[in-house]
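Render Golgi apparatus membrane protein TVP23 homolog in 3D.
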Amino acid sequence: SSEDIEDVSLFDADDDLSRRSKKSKIRHPVASFFHLFFRVSAIAVYLLCELLTSSFIACMVTIILLLSCDFWAVKNVTGRLMVGLRWWNQVDDDGRSHWIFESRKVSAQRTKTSSEAESRIFWLGLITCPMIWVIFAFSALFSFKVKWLAVVMMGVVLQGANLYGYIRCKVGSRKNLTSMATSYLGKQFLRQTVAKEDQTGS
């Protein structure tokens, strides 16, 4: 028989409990740990650097190493495992550079490999830490800590690049963020216009 047969739970409560357990379970604990470890460690070293040592070079090298490890781990490992997204740059035979943004396709026969708990951990760390580095950048700029500005800008660039790449993966590689915002505002304006016409007509 060529018909697709699907197993259906006879009790909705049991089915809901199994779904909740799958959503709440962290399936990649090592990836989830290192997704937060490198970026939180870089922020902690930056905040506690003057208390730990008086050497600016040692602090700078440590922070840059942590940021580099974080960039590699998030771009190549944790994004693929935790949320099924990945992005990279490819150079063709003509020497032209292409940015590729991919999202895992979930088929009917294949269950979803990422859980809601992992997704929350991933996006929370991905969004919060670059915002903290932006705050550090303004703080270093206004307090005239010029020597720390280069280190802070490295954090903004590396973690901001991962944030931008995964946002592009999430919304779709063929869609431009500006065009999406414009179309959303256009739809909202159209809805308001239709609603006003309905009120005046009635």
